[in-house]
Amino acid sequence: MALATFPSKLERERRFFFLMAITILMTVVAGFGSQLAARRVWFADFPWQVHVHAMVFSAWITLYAVQSSLVVQGRHVSLHRRLGWAGAVIASIMVPLGISATLMAIARGSITGIFPLGLFLALDVMHITGFGVLTFAAFRLRHNAAWHKRLMLCGTILLTAPAFSRLFSFLPLGAATPLAVIGALAVFIAAAVLFDFVTWRRVHPAYWWGAGTVAVVELLIVPIGLSPPVVVFATNLAS
Questions:
Q1: What's the pTM value of the predicted model, to 2 decimals?
Q2: Burial of 141 (C-beta count, 10 Å sphere; 0-12/13-18/19+)
Q3: 8 CB neighbour count, 10 Å cutoff
Q4: CA of 168: how far to CAs of 43, 52, 163, 173, in Å?
Q5: Which of 112, 106, 210 minimizes the C-alpha distance to 156?
Q6: 180: burial class by Cβ within 10 Å (0-12, 13-18, 19+)?
Q7: In a 3-state reduction of DSSP, which class is residue 232?
Q8: pLDDT at site 79
Q9: Residue 217: what pLDDT?
Q10: What is the dihedral of CA 13, 18, 19, 22, to 10 degrees?
Q11: Among candidate residues 33, 15, 116, the one with its CA nearest the CA of residue 71
């Protein structure tokens, strides 16, 4: 009788990161797709700049899933590296594009509901900035796979905040919605940290930096978003 073969710890880790990538992709699709399904918005409702923003961000999420798929297969290393350079270009575009899209949304008066304008501005800008910082660090450490994939995951998790905001808009959370979004991001981070601990019996130091950056971003959103200068700026932008 042949002995059963079990995946190595590294193989399990690769599968976990692929699963996280697919979960992030599904979260983004569900979040933004829910608005279309509920007929809250339609493609023609937005200017071309918003469509460019959506295509670039969708390209990143899709590429992240593809890259994780290549790694879990254990092949196509050269292709993974070549696509990594394309990802670096996309990420460098995403940060200014994300900030400009946020400013445009406020100026167009399309931000309504429970999010105060200053808080919405801080939420989006802080998340995309945190993504940029973590992704830049991950790219610099691309030759160190353990650091690279953990920092990349933490940065990409920050991009799910808008999707969670849209999903939670269907729930009667009221003013607690921003806290629910932060909690959802924390669940993703906690799952990654827990997997590390269970698999390797320790937490990789990359998570102390990655999760720490995410925590700093979340802790700064409310004080910055409710600060008088940001509130005045956002209010003037909307008027």
A1: 0.89
A2: middle
A3: 9
A4: 21, 25, 9, 7
A5: 210
A6: middle
A7: helix
A8: 86
A9: 93
A10: 170
A11: 15
Q: What is the pLDDT of residue 38?
A: 72
Query: For the range 85-88, what are the long-range contacts, defined as Cβ-Cβ under 8 Å and sequence gap of 24 or more?
Result: 87/60, 87/63, 87/139, 88/139
Q: For position 42, what pLDDT does the model report?
A: 58
Amino acid symbol at 189? I
- The string of pLDDT tens digits covering residues 121-152 is 998 899 999 999 999 999 999 999 999 999 99
How far apart CA 236 and CA 238 sit, in angstroms, is 5
The tokens for 181 are 């979004």
Contact 24, 195 (CB under 8 A): no
Amino acid of residue 43: F
Q: What whole-number distance in Å separates Cα of residue 146 and Cα of residue 20?
A: 15
| DSSP 3-state percent helix, strand, coil across the chain (nearest 5) | 80, 0, 20
Q: CA torsion sign, 160 to 165 to 170 to 172?
A: positive
Per-residue model confidence as pLDDT tens digits over 171-194: 888 778 888 888 999 999 999 999
Integer Cα distance of 192 and 141 in angstroms = 19
Question: Could you tell me the pLDDT band of residue 106, with boundaries at 50, 70 and 90?
Answer: confident
User: For 87-117, what is the HEC assignment?
Assistant: HHHHHHHHHHHHHHHHHHHHHCCCCCCCCCH
